[in-house]
Amino acid sequence: TNCITVILLTLQTNILTELKNWKLNLIQHHKLQMRQEKEKHAAHVKQLQNEMENLKELLHTYEISISRKDEVITNLTQAFEKQKERVELMRKFTLWRIQHVKTKQEEYANNIAERHFRTALMKKVWAAWRSANEIRWKDKVARACQLRAEDVCVQLTNDYEAKIAELTATLEQRKAEILRLHNERDQYEDTMKKAFMRGVCALNLEAMTMFQSK
């Protein structure tokens, strides 16, 4: 009887040791996955930040270009006082559009940061709940964790694919917006050139009339 008891105790100790080792391995594996996901997310956020910085630099370049064009417009408006109000309204509208684009970019970045925070918080809550109930449920929890991990991986894959699609659509939208602004600028320059040429022609005609009258 004592021998059987010792064997049972030894077997129980070995089983508990295996369970403990299995628990530690599972926790380490989970930590590794969490670290990898954090690294991926950090790289993704950094890429987004770089893209936003590039867009900001591009917008800044357009602001400088528009500012220079405003100086040219100001010089031209001295000969065309009747068009001064129209030129001023156009400049204010362009600046408002640029500010509007910046505001949308900031709102988009804040939304991404908030969603990332919620996702990280949900992962932490899930990890804490699983650790608290892991010993009691043993094999059942292990099976549930495995299924949950697969679901989470699938969900994360779907979420990242959706984010990539959303970012791609947003980038295309920003490119279209920049192209539209560029076309508006070219159209505006062409309008000003035509107006300037009309003014020059009018001045030439008036000068010719004066010379003929003399």
UniProtKB/TrEMBL annotation:
Localization of this protein: Cytoplasm, Cytoskeleton, Microtubule organizing center, Centrosome, Centriole
A Gene Ontology biological process term: eye photoreceptor cell development
Alphabetically ordered keywords of this record: Cell cycle, Coiled coil, Cytoplasm, Cytoskeleton, Repeat
GO cellular component: centriole; photoreceptor connecting cilium
Keyword Coiled coil: yes
Coiled coil region boundaries: 31-65, 157-191
Record-stated family: Belongs to the POC5 family.
Function: Essential for the assembly of the distal half of centrioles, required for centriole elongation. Acts as a negative regulator of centriole elongation.
Protein name as annotated: Centrosomal protein POC5
Gene source species: Chaetorhynchus papuensis
Name of the coding gene: Poc5
